[in-house]
Amino acid sequence: MIKLYICPKCGWIRTVSRRAEVECFRCQNEPMKQLKLDYRTYTKMSDAERKDYVDSWMYIHDIKGTRA
Fold first, then answer.
1. Is the pTM here over 0.85, yes or no?
2. Torsion of Cα atoms, 48 then 29 then 2 then 60, to 10°
3. Which end of the chain is more exposed for a tag (fewer CB within 10 A), N or C?
């Protein structure tokens, strides 16, 4: 099963199939959080929808700062 993870620091999304602990390579190994979004839905989203999803996730989780 493919899982999606997001970096709470920069908003980068990563797909993983077997790992339990996932780190962000853009933020020097920042621990990532698993998304509730399933992979099938994610692949059907446009780039704009994906950006909106990340922006919404960052806003909901009260993460301040700029994204890379």
1. no
2. -50
3. N
